[in-house]
Amino acid sequence: MTNMNSSVIIEDESKLELPEYIDRPEYVRNKSVGYSLQIAGWFLFMWLFMPLLTIFFWLFEGKTIYQQMIVQAEPTSPLSLVHLATMILIFIAVLLLWATYNWVRFAGKERRSAPMSVNEEQLAISFKVNPMDILNMQQAKNLTLYYDEDGRLEFFETNQSLKKRL
Questions:
Q1: Are residue 124 and residue 98 in the same domain, yes or no?
Q2: Which of 6, 12, 42, 129 is a plausible cystine mate for 133, CB 3.0–4.6 Å?
Q3: Is residue 143 within 8 Å of residue 158, measured between CB atoms?
Q4: Per-residue pLDDT tens over the stretch 44-71
Q5: Which residue range is the domain that position 83 belongs to?
């Protein structure tokens, strides 16, 4: 029996079977066309199938709801329409009160502040690299950082080629 918690670290990236388009942004073109097709597909789905689902639920479940809520329900029963409507209105009122309280409490009060700016030397000390490497990383269009098991930066790649080993 194998231990399910043991993790295997794959050092050879070719064994990961990653598709090429993950590391190659030129393969991911025309995102707007893909998103447009996705939106068109959802509209087509709703246009075709939502009316059919609605008709199905009206035909088969409408009778059950009518029997349970109108015919068999007594005015004093806990599931009468008046009680349900009252509960819904109470929930809406509680939500509105909570929203009003939060608006009064936080309106015009910015509790978040911008982080302090750091220079290249401080950033280099934080990552334990030299300041020139920080400048190279800041100017790179594509950047991949490799960390060891303890979370320390081992090396980095810029523009799809290995630039610097730390």
A1: no
A2: 129
A3: yes
A4: 988 888 888 888 888 877 777 777 766 7
A5: 31-103
